[in-house]
């Protein structure tokens, strides 16, 4: 099952989204790389890299805004593991919902990205 990594400036936003997604796709693995260690607003490449170390399968990264995307892209450039981890630039909440449901249905990473791009890149 494809893992989702939610990268947000807000830990509270990411936790709330994870709760929402669990209602629709309880089996989909969802990891958070949100907020800063001290609880403040922000993103951190190290937290994203930590999430990479905790995935159980291939993964899809979704971000909220600006530096979350830049940090996710940097973390991907630095990643030397053997899992297929990709980023897709779609709305965090709506994209997360669709990705979680499709992952729960057993769709592949390519199938999920294709569906997200079809839905949000019109």
Written account of the structure:
The chain is of the alpha/beta class and 122 residues long. The chain has a single domain, classed as 3-Layer(aba) Sandwich (Rossmann fold). 49% of the residues lie in helices and 16% in strands. It is built from five helices and four strands; from the N terminus they run E-H-E-H-E-H-E-H-H. It has helices spanning 11-24, 45-53, 67-78, 92-104, 109-120; strands spanning 3-8, 30-34, 59-63, 85-87. Strands 2-1-3-4 form a four-stranded parallel β-sheet, sandwiched between helices. Helix 3 links the parallel strand 3 (59-63) and strand 4 (85-87). Helix 1 (11-24) packs parallel to helix 4, helix 2 (45-53) crosses helix 3 (67-78) and helix 4 (92-104) runs antiparallel to helix 5. The chain is globular. It starts with a strand and ends with a helix. The mean pLDDT is 96.
Descriptive labels:
122 residues; alpha/beta; Rossmann fold; four-stranded parallel sheet; 5 helices; 4 strands; 49% helix; globular
CA-based shape: globular
| Uncertain residue segments | none
- State the domain count: 1
- The CA-CA distance between the termini, in Å, is 27 Å
How would a crystallographer describe the biggest sheet? Answer: 4 strands, parallel
Order of helices and strands: EHEHEHEHH
Helix proportion range:
40-55%
Q: Look at the structure and give the CATH class.
A: Alpha Beta
Q: How many E-type strands?
A: 4
What's the gyration radius in Å? 13 Å
Tell me the β content: 15-25%
């Amino acid at each position: 099952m494809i893992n989702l990594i939610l990268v947000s400036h807000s830990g509270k936003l990411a936790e709330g989204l994870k709760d929402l997604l669990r209602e629709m796709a309880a089996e989909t693995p969802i990891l958070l790389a949100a907020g800063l260690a001290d609880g403040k607003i922000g993103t951190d490449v190290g937290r994203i890299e930590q999430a990479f170390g905790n995935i159980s399968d291939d993964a899809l990264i979704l971000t909220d805004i600006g530096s979350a995307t830049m940090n996710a892209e940097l973390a991907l450039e630095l990643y030397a593991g053997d899992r297929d981890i990709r980023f897709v630039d779609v709305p965090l909440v709506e994209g997360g919902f669709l990705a979680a449901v499709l992952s729960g249905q057993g769709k592949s990473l390519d199938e999920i990205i294709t569906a997200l791009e079809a839905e949000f890149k019109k």
